[in-house]
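Input record (one chain):
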Amino acid sequence: MKELLSEGVIIEAGRGQSTGGKPPTLFRLNTGVLYSVGVSLDSARVVIALCGLNGKLIERVDLPGHGSEPPPDVMTRVAKSIQQLLARRGLTRDSVVGVGVASTGRRRGSLGWGAYEEMKDVWEAFDIAAELRSRCGLVVIVENDANCVALGAFWAGGNDAPRDFVTVYMSTGIGAGIVIAGAIFRGASDNAGEIGHIVVEPAGLECWCGSRGCLETVGPPKGIVLQVRADPELFALFDGGEARDEAAVYARVLKGLADGVPQAEALIDLSARRVATALLGVVNALDLDLIQLTGPGFAPAGERYRAELQTAVDRAAFSRRVHPVAVQLGRTGPDVAAMGAASVVFHSSLTPHHLSNRM
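The corresponding structure, as predicted from the sequence alone:
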């Protein structure tokens, strides 16, 4: 408490009602004294979010995705945008706790995260934290995007936040942040939550991870595009051989969904069923009573995914007669991972055992 007061993180907010002795002192977060920056790295879009101590978004900056751009060049333009954002807001480095970076892929020791399969070797060998820190002069914490979203939900929930839940984050790919007893479960090498590589179609398409029929090949937007390109009829309808990138093909599928095209509806329904299949296994393995669906990948048809999963757990969850399992549709905007990354910085830096080491 003394450290939080001395840091200016909390301030007195009056006196509570006495129960016979001295009235207790009330405290509240000093939301205007400290800030953090969150960055979401994605092949389609890079989002930078400036957030206050209460987790609320102050300003968002959207940049082009990293695509096949060399990682050092991506870090240079991200750092430049962060510096411009802080200058625009009149903030000094002393008022910014740090930068959280939400990214995808496989963790390799202290190095960065593999951004996506076509560039995995380049990104896995790249130290995102060190490279961005050297460019912007701030503490940098790199975290899996699904973990960022899960911690963001926990941070924003305050005393009412659930302590055991899974947050599923779907952007171009899909992953899960697993919160157990109020902390992220990371596994042996920080790679827990890779639900995209749960096999849901044993005879399905080959996945870049080396397996076949992974959820990644049929569930998220990139998987839907793979399904389109593997089927001549769907290819002619939604791609047409015009060298369209993933985003353009997926956009045509979504337009078809909005227009009631049966093939588009079938693709989304298949995606929802396979996501539900994978998550039913997660529910049974962890004995969950809450799953949150978040991220821009759920935005076009989130209720379809939520309803499909709710039906699956109501029908087949092992503990369904002991307790219900709630499936919630959370934030689906493009800034949810960046905002979560900003909260990771607060979570890491402002817990008592971190305060004395904060830069």
